[in-house]
Amino acid sequence: MKKVSILALSVALAVVSCKESKTDTATSTTEQTVAEHSEETFNVNTDNSMVKWTAYHKGGLNPRFGTTKTTGLLSVENGNLISGSLVSDINTLTTDASSVDPAITEGKTSSDLDTHLKSADFFDVAKYPSVKFDITKVEDLPAGTVSKVEGANKQVSGNLTIKDKTVNVTFPAKVDITADKINLVSKFTINRQDWGLAYGAEGDPKDWMISQEVDLELNIVANK
């Protein structure tokens, strides 16, 4: 029986250690100089744009996901995206009810998770009501780069500010530009501890099984 138990534990740990990646991994560095806007700007269409987040327990288990509403603008020069600023209102953060099963969460619901995420344990919206992303550079996607975003054609870098910490992140994106519309699509993963969001990190007795990885999915539509 003891050998069987050890084997079962080994299998469980192997499963927990594996998470199929559906996103690109963002690279990070220190805060950089923000790119200046041109005269040609497009306003983010909040109703048609989506910022989706997904968080996991270790190994990709029990994913929780939801959205936030976003405002901002993007700037174009000679038909190319050169700068932009996106602001997500964390007060609008909503967890998808389908990602939380009260039967296995001791009765806790998606609304309970919303409240916890907005508390001082995570985003502390009373002090820091928004998350901001300021573009610092947009380049053509380097040749040979493999991205999880179909049709990715650009590499976007920007300062991501969460609470009082700013980190520059770089990720592939698909950017389509017409005379009156910009569509930016990206899927990338960040490490929340880079911004001091350390609740439930390994070694924390409150809940060490919460993964440090958070997936972000951007589908930004901006219009003239």
From TrEMBL:
Residues 41-223 form the Lipid/polyisoprenoid-binding YceI-like domain. SMART domains: YceI. Gene3D superfamilies: Lipid/polyisoprenoid-binding, YceI-like. SUPFAM superfamilies: YceI-like (SSF101874). This is YceI family protein. It comes from Kaistella carnis.
